[in-house]
Amino acid sequence: MNHYDKIVSLLEEQELDALLLTGEANRFYASGFFTPGADATALVTRKSAVFLTDARYTEAAARRLDGAELRETKPGKGLMDHLRELLFLKNIRRLGFEDAAMTVQSFRRLEKALAEEPARELVPASEPLLKLRQTKDPEELRAMETAQGIAERALEDILKELRPGVTEKEIAARIQYRMLHYGASDMSFDPIVVSGVNGSLPHGVPSEKEIQAGEFVTMDFGCVYGGYCSDMTRTVAVGTVTAEMERVYETVLAAQKAGIAAAKAGVPGKDVDAAARAVIAKAGYGEYFTHSFGHGVGVEIHEAPNASSGSEAPLPAGAVISAEPGIYIPGKLGVRIEDVVVITPEGCRNLTRAPKELTVL
Fold first, then answer.
1. Hey, which residues does 339 pair with through a beta bridge?
2. For the sheet containing 94-97, what is the strand order?
3. pLDDT number for residue 167
4. What domains can be seen in the chain, in order of their start residue?
């Protein structure tokens, strides 16, 4: 899977001769081949694409790349040497670059390398790239659905192992193992597993704390498949629940359903956030919903678009966003429930199939 054609359309729209991709997410999005960090660069012009990397990756790249010329960087002919040559051969004058991913040091090196005649213009292009990636095509959605299915299989296994005495760290480790076992290539992010009073930490780090009867356990995790991320959160109770625990849980669930019902192509992200927030505020827990309703998911676990109180932009059809309201009461408990949905002209389609009614193990 590559997206050279989409990027060519972007070049025409932005009046660019070429786009230099140095960040790993956009490099993968363009080529379909993943390399970590700064270990590769891609150059996409209106007529061709070139992928540049060193000898550690050239054999693997040759097997995976489709529709791009592969060039090997080496001592004596490094990246900037290749770029100078390519920009001259392809007559590139306006070069887009990833201003959000490039360091000041790298930008200065690039400026210096391109300072020779003829004059060339470096044009920031991160925002148009992020916008381009918002709308997922069918192949991208298939990868995301597979990643989601892997995470849900892991959850099914973990629910059988959750019991008093098991630590948060142990559950986090088992989740990761299960997702890898079922076909994931990596984690979308380090799993969050928090229980009891730790549940009030939205991004709490799994600890040596043992899970106790009468507590909530919140598990937020996802995996990567085919280069695309999944993301989900489930909160379950162990042993028994109090009336307050049940009320908090049902409030979060109702808020999530309200936000999902409001999600539709053309609706501003802030309206989706507001629909969920109103439910939580009406129940008296407004001050305890401390983050946004959702964020975009794709090649990166957090990308555009967002469904937050400050998101003025309308959600585009084909975008995938998380739906994850929560209530976090310091010193007591926390509950978050998260699905991922695909925005459509009619509403949205939920990619998450795992049950989310209150579960008491």
1. 323
2. 69-72, 49-53, 40-45, 18-21, 94-97, 121-124
3. 98
4. 4-133 (3.40.350.10), 135-350 (3.90.230.10)
In angstroms, the Cα distances linking 61 to 39, 55, 142 are 12, 10, 23
Q: What is the pLDDT of residue 114?
A: 79
Share of the chain above pLDDT 70, in %: 99
Q: To 10 degrees, what angle do helices 4-14 and 126-134 make?
A: 130
Coil/strand/helix, residue 279 = helix
pTM passes above 0.70: yes
Q: What is the 3-state secondary structure (H, E, C) of 171-199?
A: HHHHHHHHHHHCCCCEECCCCEEEEHHHH
Is the pLDDT at 166 greater than 80? The verdict is yes
Structure tokens at 235: 């909160």
Whats the size of the chain, residue-wise? 361
Give the model's pLDDT for residue 117: 62
Cα angle for residues 32, 36, 42 (degrees, 5° grid): 50
Question: Which two structure tokens, joined as six digits, stand for 359?
Answer: 């579960």
Continuous segment of H or E residues that includes residue 4: helix 4-14
Helix 24-31 and helix 126-134: axis angle, to 10°?
A: 50
pLDDT, position 97:
95
Residue 331 · residue 257 · CB < 8 Å: no
pLDDT at 119 over 80: no
Question: For residue 194, which phi and psi values (nearest 5 degrees)?
Answer: -135, 145
Query: How far apart, in whole angstroms, are the C-alpha atoms of residue 212 and residue 322?
Result: 29
- Rounded-to-integer distance, Cα 84 and Cα 202, Å: 47
pLDDT surpasses 90 at 96: yes
